[in-house]
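Appendix B, example 12.
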Amino acid sequence: MLPFKWENPDITFLTSIREKLETVPPLSSTCSIHKVPKMLRSVNDKAYNPKVISIGPFHRGEESLQVMEEHKWRYLRIFLDWYPQIKLEHYVEVLRGLEESARQCYVEPIKLGSYEFVEMMLLDGFFILVLFLKMWTHEWDSRDPIFRTRWMLGPIMLDMLLLENQIPFFVLKRLFQLSEVPNQDDERRPSLLELTYVFFRKFLKRDEILDQTISRSEVKHLLDFVQSFLLPSSIMVLPHGDTRYDFTPTATELHEAGVEFKVVKSNCLLDISFRNRVLEIPFLKIEDGTELLFRNLIAWEQCQTLLNCEITSYAYLMDGLIKTPKDVD
């Protein structure tokens, strides 16, 4: 008869805690693609969910977005046909080398195997590049539903600006670099930044792409690229002082107090000034996608570790100025 073996429950408990500690992944300093906090989602959940296409892992596999998955394969084939000198195996090999760095860009561990993750980057990356190139050249197949129908391109463009619907920009950059062939054409080949600018031009306030516009940091993803055009190239850090928040008077109250409102011609959304009873604010065109863009920009800022939250501050100011239809007038 075997002797009874008694285990100390405290030792078993401590062992299980140590095992869990060993499996906790370290915090990543390169995390740039986040899930939108529930506190922000509760105001308008639809502003953060893709309507047509999933980019990246967070919304991958959702039933309502499956129609575009087949179209991603078509765009991959188009790109490979455009640049036949680069083999598919080479793209896959490079993406496998980028896999770990790309995974660290997401706020939480991605529950996809290595092959699935690389396939996702391959399909999503080339879909974006082909879409950019088609927009640049204005040459597309009349059978392509994205350009054949009047409604599809706009929603896809907005889906590509959602915080949860991103892949790292360095993945796009590397794939685009691989397709470069010396002396392939006499026509100047656009840079990836130029392609991105042309595609999202309707959301940007600048008339041309400037290197200093995006020199404040390396571009993290497409939403970050758009944000860089709405902000000044150098961020001013305000001195520490009284941190109390004073509510902004409404536009009606300011007008009744003798304040004059003027539109200022500026490429920067934040170029707002108040001098001699004159409040100058840059022109902002309000469209169907304006709220969605601003909500995702604010969510992106709230997930960063920057000292200033410029878009959030702008939204607070506008929210203070505009309370009633009379304020809008």
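The first strand starts at residue 260 and ends at 264. Residues 38-203 form one domain.
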